[in-house]
Amino acid sequence: MILYSLKLLTLLLRATTKNSGTALPGLLLEKYFPNTLKKLLAQFDDVILITGTNGKTTTTQMVCHLLKAQNVDFVTNTSGSNLIRGIASSVLDKTKNGKVQAKLGIFEVEEATMPLLSKLVRPRLIVVTNIFRDQLDAYGEIDKTLRYIREAIESSNNPILILNGDDPRVQNLSNYSNGEINFVKLDPKLLEQIKFEDSNVDIKSNITINTKVWNIKNISIDDMSMEDFNSFSDIFKIDILEVIKIENCVNQRESFGGTSKNNVLMQITNGKEFLKNYK
Q1: Under a CB-based contact definition with an 8 Å cutoff, are residues 76 and 90 in contact?
Q2: Which residues pair with 47 in a beta bridge?
Q3: Which of 76, 79, 193, 224 is the most buried (most CB within 10 A)?
Q4: For residue range 241-278, what is the model confidence (pLDDT) as tens digits?
């Protein structure tokens, strides 16, 4: 009955607002029915979590696109709401008669949410894109942000890690899982254009790391060609260039307050109405 009521609420919100990605049903599920949420998440056979300061949305979009091309069923939070409430709403949306309609979950996750989510699911694979200081307003300090991700890895069952092998702080996360460790690195010449936070790399000597160097010619994703993508893997096809367009990634963020065109226009309208009434 709980799930039927929340799904009905989702339909009503979509019918009465322009915001198709509302996280309200997920918020209610998270706050008032946590056991129900845990049971839904437990239905996944595999879960992939994608986190980091930058690149979460683009990375998630590319992974989902590749899996769709292989006809793999999955649940993901395409709305861009990367808190537990947004993930819960996405799962709820793909639930029928109490059953989640896929066995694979692929979720973009905000860093501070990682340890909370890892208590509800046991991810098979965790992807960490990078750790930069432009999230300081949200989390206080860069080490605290890193600690959130480390706690999630430690509380999981030795997940496979795919890490940014050029970011020293992210490299050190390899110490916290006994699962398969993978570094993705760029040609050193390109790294002159990226300023990672200085930090000592201190990786345990008994850890085996698989390293893949991506020999791309352009570091800007807008300038990347099919040759760049295929230098990493031939699984990429020409339509990946549409997926990674910044406007397409941004327009996926339909959660309330998100950066999609519809949301921005709605916020402008609401702001104008507020100023009008304020006068």
Answers
A1: yes
A2: 105
A3: 79
A4: 777 776 766 666 655 545 556 666 766 676 667 567 75
- Is 126 strand, coil or helix? strand
Residues 6 or more apart in contact with residue 94 via CB below 8 angstroms: 75, 100, 101, 102
Q: Among the residues of the chain, which ranges form H helices?
A: 2-16, 24-32, 34-41, 56-69, 84-93, 114-117, 136-139, 142-155, 168-171, 226-230, 240-243, 246-250, 261-278
C-alpha 88, offset from chain centre:
14
Tell me the angle at which helices 24-32 and 34-41 cross, rounded to the nearest 10 degrees: 110
Is the pLDDT at 135 greater than 60, yes or no? no
- Report how far residue 106's alpha carbon sits from residue 47's, in angstroms, rounded to the nearest whole number: 6
Q: Is the dihedral of CA 189, 194, 199, 205 positive or negative?
A: negative
The full DSSP string for 248-275 is HHHTT--STT-SSHHHHHHHHHHHHHHH
d(CA 18, CA 61): 22
Report the C-alpha gap between 129 and 56 in whole angstroms.
7
The answer to whether the CB of 217 falls within 8 A of the CB of 228 is: yes
Nearest to 186, CA basis, from 145, 149, 222, 228 = 228
What three-state secondary structure class fits 66? helix
Q: What is the pTM of this model?
A: 0.82
Closest listed residue to residue 84, CA positions, set 57, 56, 60, 108 = 108
